[in-house]
Write a structure and sequence with these properties.
By secondary structure, the chain is an all-alpha fold. Helix content is 56%, strand content 0%. Helix 17 packs across helix 21. Residues 65-233, 436-590 form the Duffy-antigen binding domain. InterPro entries: Duffy-ag-bd_sf (IPR042202), Duffy-antigen-binding (IPR008602).
């Protein structure tokens, strides 16, 4: 096949010796030594290089959560959009030219980023630096997606239209199968064009030949040390390749910033660690700002990963990453730990769950040797308080909260009895990076009235009480609707047991209050934004101007100290549905070690604690809740279907009447399933 392709391209002067001479002339002559644009493809060192882009400006609507690499944003595609020879040969030539020019400019930037280093020396010795070879793999994969019409970016519509038109003209179809067949015929030639461009600057012909042979498509067809072949890597979904590229870059750059903090905050700089403007202070801020930005980027990616992995037509690449048997979803970091090149994503061990200041990958401690609070404040960051050292909650005064709430309802406020809606999957109701989520009916009716009031949130003590009261009222009201649908639940509660189904509701609710506190709730509703603003305002006022401790650090420490009180407020609200007993007997529930903040778990083996579950991204918790709700509803719907078709048999008694009844039941079930398929976050 390889010989046939080379022969054909030589005849057509598209790739053979004449075409390689053309590539060389294009790259060396038109660029004038790497200084000027080649066919409108500019040097990548011109101007500032873009950052990762996760916004709808770059990503197609159906691919929300993906992040486009800077490399891909600068991809050279101009010849693919405007070539005039609309034939198979012309398309091949355009791909080869773009891939070659792209590789040439990538190499120039790579050398500059390395400040010379040993990059040129390695290439002159016949070795492509491993990091740059990785960039070539990513680039080759992006050109493949362009050819197959699978690129998930919004910035190449003109290229897609051109390629589609050419395929329609030359093969009478632009179907994926036809495109894939064409790519398989020319992929080796396109890769060889990339090698040709890379080796242009080499003066020793023997070294050029060595590189082209060692890194030929044929040689890279085989996996190496569990690293996929060039062909297999290019076939991965573009989103996953980009996420791998993101992960490898993040861990690499994070390590550099860690090392910088370690250098700047030790030795001669150690005496003035926390003074504004010091080397240590600047290094800490640089590290903090970087990981906080990257945490937001990864949140969208891991949400998309879970959604795609558990989708109806999931790509085979996701086959090992579907939900686990206990209902726990595997996150994107688990994929990165497995699929990144030789441990290059090892810093992603904790994924989105590593949210405390001293945990990877987004924690604030930059280095084990840097013994300063959250990198900047000068004192150690406290860990979770042991249960016996936590402050005891105020006296449970649920009657007072209920009376206050009734008065607030009377003036148009307060928290009303529950009347749930359907799941809300409308993208307009979410922040841009969280679109694609579905909000539970429970969460839509969350009791947050007190948290929106100035008088109830004007200082830390009042803010804490507003969270406790809101959580207590939410639980109290949620039980009222739960017991209507679960008759046995009342007996369980009277015996001092929280029904498992309601305990799960309490876990989901506690997690949502935590997201409200930390400002990570996905909703863009104005009341949610009001709560975020009020929380931040109170905490910002507590940070002295000379203290460089960040808002997130202060909030984290507060939650470690008081989060358990919010949970205990929820137990308080629930306990007031235990009737005809004394207050001291209600404490059997509120003070039970079985339901204590530090030990309570879901039922089942290896289940997370309340604290662990609440730390999970809201998207994943809601997806878990959706699964719970779907399975429960489906059981009831199947029962209705069975009852509707009971007694219907062909040629049986009252056949037409029973048939009509069964068809009605089938139509009702089908409609319900279609709605769930359309509205779900899966």
């Amino acid at each position: 096949m390889y010989f046939a392709i080379i022969t054909a391209t030589r005849i057509n002067m598209s790739l053979g010796k004449n075409h390689m001479i053309m590539i060389k002339r294009t790259l060396l002559d038109k660029s004038e030594g790497g200084k000027k644009a080649i066919d409108h493809c500019n040097p990548k060192t011109n101007g500032p290089y873009p950052k990762w882009d996760c916004t709808p400006n770059k990503i197609k609507s159906g691919e929300k959560g993906a992040c486009m690499p800077p490399r891909r944003q600068k991809l050279c595609v101009i010849n693919l959009q405007y070539f005039s020879n609309e034939s198979s040969d012309g398309l091949r030539e355009a791909f080869i030219q773009c891939a070659a020019i792209e590789t040439f400019w990538l190499w120039q930037k790579y050398k500059k980023d390395k400040n010379g280093g040993d990059a040129e020396e390695k290439l002159n010795s016949g070795i492509i630096p491993e990091e740059f070879k990785r960039q070539m793999f990513y680039t080759f994969g992006d050109f493949r997606d362009l050819c197959l019409g699978k690129d998930i970016g919004k910035d190449v519509d003109g290229v897609n239209d051109k390629i589609t038109g050419v395929f329609t003209k030359i093969v009478g179809s632009s179907s994926g199968l036809k495109r894939e067949t064409w790519w398989d015929e020319h992929k080796e030639a396109i890769w060889e064009g990339m090698l040709c461009a890379l080796t242009n600057g080499l003066t020793e012909e023997e070294k050029k030949k060595q590189i082209k042979d060692k890194y030929s498509y044929e040689k890279l067809k085989k996996p190496n040390n569990n690293i996929p072949s060039l062909e297999d890597f290019a076939k991965k979904p573009q989103f996953l390749r980009w996420m791998i590229e993101w992960g490898e870059e993040f861990c690499r750059e994070r390590e550099k910033l860690e090392d910088k903090v370690n250098t700047e905050c030790n030795g001669k700089n150690r005496s003035s660690l926390c003074v504004n403007g010091t080397h240590c202070n600047k290094a800490c801020d640089e590290y903090k700002n970087y990981v906080e930005t990257k945490q937001k980027e990864f949140r969208g990616q891991t949400d998309k990963f879970v959604k795609d992995a558990n989708g109806e037509n999931a790509h085979e690449e996701y086959s090992d990453y579907k939900s686990k048997k206990d209902g726990e979803f595997q996150q994107g970091n688990e994929y990165l730990l497995d699929k990144c090149d030789t441990g290059k994503c090892s810093c992603m061990e904790k994924g989105m769950l590593g949210v405390s200041p001293n945990e990877k990958p987004f924690g604030r401690y930059a280095h084990d040797k840097v013994k300063i609070c959250n990198c900047t404040s000068g004192t150690y960051a406290p860990g979770p308080l042991p249960p016996d050292q936590r402050q005891k909650i105020y006296k449970c005064d649920m009657k007072k909260y209920i009376q206050e709430n009734a008065q607030e309802i009377g003036i148009g406020g307060g928290c009303n009895p529950k009347k749930y809606n359907v799941w809300d999957c409308n993208d307009k109701h979410y922040e841009i990076n969280d679109r694609g989520a579905c909000m539970p009916p429970r969460r839509q009716k969350l009791c947050i009235y007190k948290l929106t009031r100035d008088k109830e949130t004007e200082n830390l003590d009042k803010l804490k009480m507003s969270f406790i009261k809101s959580a207590a009222l939410e639980t109290y009201l949620a039980w009222e609707i739960y017991k209507e649908n679960n008759k046995d639940a009342i007996t369980e509660l009277q015996n001092g047991e929280i029904p498992e189904g309601f305990k799960r509701i309490m876990f989901y609710t506690f997690g949502d209050f935590r997201d409200l506190f930390f400002g990570t709730d996905m909703s863009n509703h104005r009341y949610i934004n009001i709560v975020k603003e009020k929380v931040n305002k109170v905490f910002s006022e507590k940070i002295p101007s000379e203290n460089k401790k960040s808002l997130s650090d202060i909030k984290y420490q507060w939650w470690q100290k008081h989060g358990h009180e919010i949970w205990e407020g929820m137990l308080c609200g629930l306990s007031h549905h235990i009737s005809n007993i004394k207050e001291t007997e209600r404490q059997i529930l509120t003070n039970s070690s079985k339901y204590s903040y530090s030990t309570i778990k879901f039922s089942g083996e290896n289940s997370p604690t309340l604290e662990e579950f609440a730390k999970r991204p809201q998207f994943l918790r809601w997806m878990t809740e959706w699964g719970d709700d779907f399975c429960k509803q489906r059981k009831g719907k199947v029962k209705e279907l069975d009852e509707g078709c009971n007694g219907f048999t062909c040629n049986g008694d009252n056949m037409e009447q029973n048939k009509k009844k069964c068809e009605g039941a089938c139509a009702k079930y089908k409609k319900w399933i279609e709605i769930k398929k359309f509205n779900t976050c899966l």
